[in-house]
Amino acid sequence: MSGAKKVTDRNWKRVLIHSILLCIIAIAIGRQYNPDAKIPLFPDTSKYLRGAFNLERHGVLSMDWWTDPEPAPSAYILPGYPYFLSRILWTSESLRESDSIEEALDRSRPFILSQIFLLLLLAGGIGMITFVLTRKVLPAYVALLLTGFDPTLFGLANSILSEILTAFLLVLLSLLLLAAWRSGRIAAFLGAGAVLAALCMTRGVFQYLPYPAAILFLFSFRGEAGRRRERIAGLALLMLLPMLTVHGWKDRNEDHFGRAYMTGRGGVILDIRAEINDMTARQWVAACLHYSNSSLAHRFRDRFFDESDLARLSRNKNEPASLYQKARARRYELFETNDIPEADRIQMGEALAKIKAKPFRHISACIPFGIRGICIKPFWISLILFGGFFLVLIRALISRRGDILAALLPAAFSFSFYTFFSHNLPRYHEPILPLLYLGIIVGLFGLRKKSPT
């Protein structure tokens, strides 16, 4: 009995020590908040605020000003992040009474504090996943600290953009996918499906994640005769919940706009990507150097290439050769004879036709756009983060560490999809930063161990 009591006492001491450490870390992360800091006004900030205020005041997602008595429904943005903001509005009367974007930003402290709380939760989540995969405390604390004190993530928490909510949902999904793989319990699959449904309503690309997830989890059924039924039922829930959610949103849009679709921006983005596939070999090399944020690469670019080699890649509205402006001009041309949903459908169809006509050019263009996408940090740090992450994925695949593959799947899917089907701006990948840290740390400390399953 005395031996058992000593073990219990040691366990309580460990719990107490870790609880104190976690409280200190949480306070230190929260102390980064500066109440006097000005909230940046990005182009999407206004859209999210209008969506949130209209949801809170009128119960409708709209891009009209919320002071309008009857704002018209919109599908220009997804409802996930505006809904999150609208729940925060419900808790703050002064913020709720704002009648302009400027007033809302001046009173935005409840928004920012709520998002810093999300940062705390996702940092803790990354620490938890790291501990589960490595069974070591030190790597878990390293992952937690890297995530909690990352300036990019804190900048996202200090702005009105959907990225910090996306990052939180991605970490939560990663944790639940890992739990589903390890346990096979229906509750874990149900939770993962619910979080994935919320993620689909925040970032539309994740409506396609159930398919690679299903392929991965089918391999976990091999040799599992006893609990195969439970796993199959769980996988059905994982796929069904996001699909039903997406279907419901598309039905809503079909009722309002006559077309079942997610948002009205997919066509122009895919058209930009399709147009850029027509780069010459010289422009391809110039793009690789240009999209890198490395000073060395830029010196090579400036020495061997001129502005004409990069004109097609320019986002400047005054650049006549810009493929961005060409795609946008086509969008406005379609608006003259079609409503927004139909114009988007036509432009998306045209873009897909261009991609199908030149599939190998599209694949080759993934290299410069992949380089562009990874530049969320200084180039060499980004190269280590993304290179190490995908190296860990390959090693986990070879060593059959399905638990690691399940935990890292959301980030791998996100990067691959955006690289293949968009112009792959770096900010698209800022939400996967916590999972990049997870991959690197697990690669250093956890790949030697065999999966419990």
Outline the fold blueprint.
Elements: H1 2-30, H2 43-58, H3 80-89, H4 93-96, H5 101-106, H6 109-134, H7 137-148, H8 151-157, H9 163-183, H10 186-200, H11 210-218, H12 228-257, H13 266-276, H14 281-291, H15 295-304, H16 307-310, H17 323-335, H18 340-357, H19 359-374, H20 379-398, H21 402-421, H22 433-445
Helix pairs in contact: 2-3, 6-7, 6-9, 6-22, 7-22, 9-10, 9-21, 10-12, 11-12, 11-21, 13-17, 13-18, 14-19, 17-18, 19-21, 20-21, 20-22, 21-22
Structural account:
The chain is built from 22 helices and no strands. The chain is an all-alpha fold and 453 residues long. It has a domain at 273-312 and 347-453.
Keywords:
mainly alpha; 453 residues; 0% strand; single chain
Summarize the structure.
With 453 residues, the chain is an all-alpha fold.
Helix content: over 70%
Main beta sheet: none
Number of helix segments?
Answer: 22
Give, in order, the helices and strands.
Answer: HHHHHHHHHHHHHHHHHHHHHH
Record field, number of beta strands = 0
Distance between the ends: 34 Å
Based on CA atoms alone, the radius of gyration comes out at: 23 Å
Strand content: under 5%
The average pLDDT value, as a whole number, equals: 88
Overall morphology: globular
Low-confidence stretches: none
- By secondary-structure content and strand pairing, the structural class works out as mainly alpha
